[in-house]
Fold:
Amino acid sequence: MILKKRLLVLNTTIILGLGSAFSIPGVNAESIDKLESQKSQIQQERSSLQATLAEADKELVSVLKEVAELDAKIARVKKAIEDNNKLIAETETNIVSTKAEVDQLKAEMAIIEERIEKRSAILKQRAQSFQESGGTVAYLDVLLGASSFSDFVDRVGAVTTFVQADKQLLEEQEQDKKAFEEKKAAVEEELAGLNSMMTELKGMQTAMEQQKKQNSSLIQQLKEKENTIADKKAKLQSEDAKYASMIAQIEQSIAAQTAPVVQTAASTSSSGSASVTSAPTGSSSVKKQKTAAQKTKGSSNSAPKPSAKGGSAISIVTTAGNKYIGNSVYVFGGGRNAYDIANGRFDCSGFVHWAFSQAGISVGASTDSLKFAGRQVSASEMRAGDLVFFNTYKTDGHVGIYLGGGKFIGSQDSTGVAIANMSSGYWKTKFSGRVVRVIE
Structure:
């Protein structure tokens, strides 16, 4: 918009100020003064146009830098989506395999139930051997029903045999049941974990696809802006060429009217005029360079990075991830090797594990292990450096590092490493209330 306005002003000046007035007058002192005046005016207008052109260059460089950064970000998101797709495929395969195990267990359960029924039939058949009058007689009744001591001894031996056999059958039955239940519980637990993982991966994939679309839309906007600035720059360069041509014509006219001796003086005057006109530009450039240097110096002094020697562990843990904000991507299982760390690829627990390692503190790399990494404190007592947990795809499925003021830093599936607000909105509704203090 600024460039358009300046172009309009410059063009209007050329048309009104020079359109009718610019002509090569006759040979006299008055016409030479007029030409010098016109030349000075054109030089001033050209200087203003060149300043506008320099601003357009800066704006174009800034846009190109944004485009390059977005290109890199899109590439990271694309790679993360590919990796997550592989994980989804592997998880789906594992789920099919685990379901097959459950089906096999069900078949084994049917076999075990059949064995139990057979054992029950055997026990019943044995009891019926002592049956009297069509009714089942208990072992004690069998013993008390002996007609003689010899009969009693025989019955005791038989009952003992039956009891021992029954006991063995019952023990086998209980062992079968126990083994089956344990195996079934283990497989079902694994299946539940895989299903939870699949839910998280698919949810994360959806969020990343949306992020990819947003980035693509933004880069398209930047490309359009780049083209617009390039067009404006081309127009400015064209106008600058016109100014240069006008100045050259005026100088030629002055030289022709003052040749041969006066021409040298006029050239000297023209050269001096040019140096005077360029002086403000150079001065402005030097001033801008000093200002930029002062800003750079100020920014480096205003936010010193904490070191392992000078800063506290809490400060290191809470600020370690700042360099990844806007420069990272969520990858399930990420942050556990040098490649992921170098390329800003983290999941929530992997990021927490890495951040604490920067302060020389070793904690787990999964949400389940981080839940017990320190002592639990109430939400009303939480302070910077504490771990905070959120119920996402499962209870305490997401973890971050509390920063204070209702903010936490973590690797979120839609943003990568970012600072989020847990005192309102989405994360407030997901906060589980679990707070773990690792650094005392």
The first helix runs from residue 2 to 19. The two ends are 55 Å apart (CA to CA). The first strand starts at residue 329 and ends at 330. Residues 14-26, 132-137, 261-311 have pLDDT under 50 and may be disordered.
